[in-house]
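User: I've been going back and forth on whether these two constructs are worth ordering. Before I decide, could you fold them both?

Assistant: Sure. I'll take them in the order you sent them. The first construct and its structure tokens:
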Amino acid sequence: MAQRFPSSFLRLSSLLVAVLLPLVGVALPVRDTATRAVLAAVPTTGFKFVDIPVGDGTVLKANYIAPTTPGPHPAIVFVSSWGLNDLEYLAQASALAQRGYVALSYTPRGFWASGGGIDTAGPADIADTSRVIDWMLAHTPADGSRIGLAGVSYGAGISLIASGFDSRVKAVAALSGWTDLVASLYGGETRRPQAVALLDLAARLLGRPSPELRTTVDNYFANRDIEGIKAWGRVRSAATYIGRINANAPAILMANAYGDSLFPPNQLASFFSQLTGPRRLEFAPGDHAVVEATGLLGLPNHVWTSVTRWMDQYVAGVDTGIDSEPPVVLRTYDGAVEGYTSWADVSSGTQRYGLGAIRLLDGTGTLGGAPATSGARTVWAGYDTQADAGVALLTNGLQALTGIPPTVWLPGVNRLNAGVWTSAITTRAISIRGVATLRLRITPSTASGTVVAYLYDLSGDSGGLITHVPFSWYGATPGVPLDLDVVFPATAHDVPAWHRLALVVDTEDPLYFDANTTGAPLSLGGPSWLDLPLR
């Protein structure tokens, strides 16, 4: 059952919690005297910058800040993002230290002044996290029985994996992270050149890529040794270690954006559903690391409010009530906040929209009703259209800040290169919640190819992008119909009354490498349909 909270109520509640929590420590349940310090501002040591040897001659750069009151204290280890260093979390570390935590941040191997080569959340990185915890327990007043891990992006991925290899970790806060690196690199069997190029550039400018990483990136762009890259990615995926993580049973909080162009959200939902320990999943509009960015500057931020409450609950031992709240939290594009008891509860049902035959007059088909079994449309692959998902990190990030999605003027979409379907005008709002799917029947003229599907919220002839996804096929028999099962990223979007839905299927988008032969004919036929998950 969904619980919906007005955004104004959430903002006021967050403000009241931030202002009043340090003042009401005696009124909240606390498990022992040592944890009472976490409820009140305490004096701190200030930041101390240290070197942490982790074996094999590698030294990691780090800093920590701790309370000056008698310990031991609950502790949090922050792992820096890709391309950043241990200064990233100064604001959050300071705030937590004043709440009674030892807060240590470190720069993973291969970045900035930390030694070694970039291991990309591999075995060396995971071993390093345990060695950092060892050092913290030996050199700070940290309590070995109350340790949390947290990080954004790269730090999130490392923290999740490390929780399966170090039973001392009681809680994890993973923000804009991944759980399945293979899905991030090859989702829909399609490569993401913009995202990987940005990561590669940051690694080369701000770190020292290991030979293994250089070879992997080179092979990715050359489209060779795909199985080798996938094996490399599975080693670096928390989903691979779900059994170990569940055995250790850390409390795991994950927060990501619907439009994350590096780590799309479906993998997080799947991982969340497999967790057996305390868990929380938060999704919000935006792109990679955009939603939580203001919190890194010390500004009010709903994600970091959740992180603090999560660590208070599961590391410091303070009853914040977060354990009794719905564990799935969705923020919609109109600013509302909804709570659900599970990921399966996000949608109450599915509505099927059949793809009708495309009309000759306007090159558009009907979206809704029974799927057509005739009237296939031939398009020519390898040419882009006005349907476009934008630029990695920037487009969805700007949407989170401005509320303006990528838009399309539907009459301008070239029907020679795309299939277009539109629904009837809605008489009431449609609340899309969860993962939409598309069954698309094609008849290819080549063994391999790519389609990109876009779902729009249409007002008049202009549409705002709700979600999109690429899908590539390989080894098909030319001339033989092929059914593609296309899975869109999760979203929470309300289509207003008197709007329409539009589905566009073309074959090119700057975000992706495609497998098309330029100019090859591709038949879009039926039966095909779109299944929308509805609240």
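The second construct, handled the same way:
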Amino acid sequence: MNILERVDRSDLPPAQVDLYHATDAQRGSPPHKEAPVWVGSPTDTPLFSPTMSSETPISVRTAEDARRQLDSLLDELADLAEGSSAPEDFWPELLSRLVFAASAQGAAIWQWGGSRRLQPLFEQGFDKVYPGQPRDVAIDIDACSLEAALRKPKASTIVSGGQADGPARLMLVAPLTTAARATGLLVLYQPADLPSVTQNGQLRLLDAFGEIAVHFQERRLLADFSGAEQNWKNQLHFARDVHRELDVKRTCYRIANDGRHALDADRVSVAEWDGPSAHVQAISGVDVLNRRAAVVRKLERLATAVAKQRQPVIFRGDRENLPPQIEEALVDYLEESPARLLIAVPLVREAEEATEEPWTSNDGILVGVMIVEQLESTEVERLLARTRSLAESATLALDNAQRYERLPLRGVMQLIGTTLAQFGWRKLSRTMRYVLPVLLALLATWWIPAPFEIDVRGQLQPEIQRQLFAPLDGYVDEILVKHGEMVAAGQVVAQLRSPDLELKQTEAAGLLSAAQSELDAVRVERTQNVRRDDDRRDSRSADRDKLSADEIRLTRRIANLQEQLLLLEAQGRALMLVAPVAGQILSWDIEETLQARPVSRGDSLLKVAEVDGPWILKLEAADRRTKHILNAQAAADAPLPITFHLVSEPGVKHPATLAEISQVIEVGTETDEPAAMLTAHFDKSEVDFLRPGVTVSGRVNCGTRSLAYVWTHELFDAVRRRLFW
């Protein structure tokens, strides 16, 4: 049945006329049976047009004229619902026509939001519906009132608002039910004092508009189902096609070209991850890549940035939320590409037990990056969902191809297999065909010699370096050096200040002054007693003895206080930190970390090292491997050779010799596990990037062993630790 036949409009005109009467009454016009209704001409200006001119209205004075005008409005709206209009185009048209036809304050489409609350998806006339009040609060109140209307089968009325949140408003609500499920509400807003007769007519009008809205949703749902079916067919074809080859380059070409057709995109590119960078292997529609081209180089830079982040990048024209490293690479690439939409998805092979989404997890093995470009505007969410599905199949296909190409001696094994097939190799049992080559290869490894090396990690350090510690509790008053500054032995580098020491000095000085004053008083009194009359000598003998004792006591106390002041002055001089050796200040960010900082006695403040003197390697060897180094050192006549390289210069190797092995096992700073500390000497003139603390990776040469032992000694050690602990 056509949507035009489904809409019941038999009772709409009388109710609409009543609505016009009520509207005139609200405006102050006396109601009468044939009140004029201003509408546009059905031939010149549509009834519902927002741009309708009000200078040449036509007066509709009969219910039959209103019925015809309303029929024309519903017919054109139904035709719009039958078409392929987008929701952003259809819903505003429906609301504007509904508001005009009902002479309402406003209308809205309410649907469930992300917080599981009803929210207005599209609205018309909310400035009139919610005047002079906090709109968000009023909308939340109406949302609570409208939730009950979802469970009603037909249109209903709800009165909301009042003295608390503004003027009362009448909401005429029609539920929108699609596929036996309420998907939203069509709400019409009118004044609360609208007559009940007019309300009934407008409810029937709202039902008619609701049927058209439901029909539009059903057509959208059918279109989505049809698009989903075609999308599944494209994905099945894509998944079947990309797994046909085990060659990495061919697989990338299939992902790019078949992915472009499956996604209906303008261009799809595939970059393979190879260690520190990504290399573009295929671009849809391009047979041969020119790696010197600017677009390829910039695309590889963008793919590398995305791969390192391991997060999908979606560019829709706005770069505000992009990380700086990706934004820079993206802006550089967009100079070569006119893409308006770009989706870059890292292809990450997830573990079997992983439960997170493949392109949101930071775990797994990175195999490549797929970049989808669209030159024209499109439905971003739909393209995003399709890209996400295709990325999973592309990840598996590319990972399988990479695993196959990484097989050791793959070409030799293929040649051997072809040769053995000529001599009846296939006549052997399946077990023998697999077991025999493996046994021969394993036996051969026991006779092939190989260097036995133990991996170590550590740092470059000057051999002579000293730490400056806080002698007392206090705070740093002045910093006289900077990071990296060269200082001489005995040079003042920092001045500390100790309030406790100053307090002790002040107290000691005060006590010394008081004791001195008291001693002077005792001496004066004693002198006066000597000059007095001899008749009183007997009576004053006890006082003279007491004064002599006080003088001795005060003299000793003054001596003690003077010694105490000397010690405090020595401690005060110790607050001036001096460089113990001539060298370079290694402490970083001294001003910010030390200036006016409170310190405790023994706190490490500065480090000084003789960078012009000899340098050493501070290395760490795992405790489980220390035995191999000790045995090799005991069997060798000379120090064990060590080969190391800076982590900032991989591939550039430097020689060194083992000097000392610690007798104590400690927790390593590089490996966070029990380790033995090693010291090695090297020629600093051979190292260009010579800075204290530079991380190095090295290998201690422990002689020669069989290839099988070199490959499996860790496994043997682990088994022995498990079985013979």
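Notes on the second construct follow. The mean pLDDT is 79. DSSP finds 18 helices and 26 strands in the chain.
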